[in-house]
Design goal:
The chain is α/β, with parallel strands linked by helices. The protein has a single domain, classed as 3-Layer(aba) Sandwich (Rossmann fold), CATH 3.40.50. It is built from 7 helices and 7 strands. β2, α5 and β3 form a beta-alpha-beta unit.
Length: 208
Amino acid sequence: MLKQTKPKGDSYYKGRAQNYNKKRLKQEWWHVEQKEMEALLETLPRDLSVVDIPFGTGRFVPFYDKFGYTIAGLDASADMIGAAREALGALYDKCSCTVGDAMDLPYKDGAFDLVVSTRFLRDIVTFGMAKKMLAEMARVTSKYAIIQLGNNFTTGRTPDDDEVMGGNLSKAGVDKLLKEHGLKVKDRRLVLSEPEIGEIYHILCEKI
């Protein structure tokens, strides 16, 4: 079982934002994430509306564009959105990006067909914050969500609200958490497995 760790928080500003893609591209599982995200999106209808939270550098935008999506993004860091503008070039002009708080999304109920959130709820914020953010994400989608979460290989435990979720939950616990927020697991794609620690998945959900 994973030990308690401190949340990383919203720390991707200025130089860290500019170097984000350069650093992540060196990670093998970054490329697995890309492959499995494209594969999941391939199973969904075309021409959806999507909001990516946090938007980061817009790593999945080429896939959204490929499938004809209307693209929105939200990030707490204006610097990250600036880095996305630089990284995406002309594709950025197809995106509607907002600086905002994932615990209080500036969108109407069911405003999007799909919500995507990776590398965020599991490690960046506390479990208490993650639950509020998950509720907001479920509120603004009308059909689907792709949420990246992790689990351990044991029965797991429920994290305290002031610690990160990490891989503390079991796989059944992850499914229960999503169901409690109105999301039913439809498919999951493994993106990282660490022996004796746990797994991380892109989880495709349908709104209940």
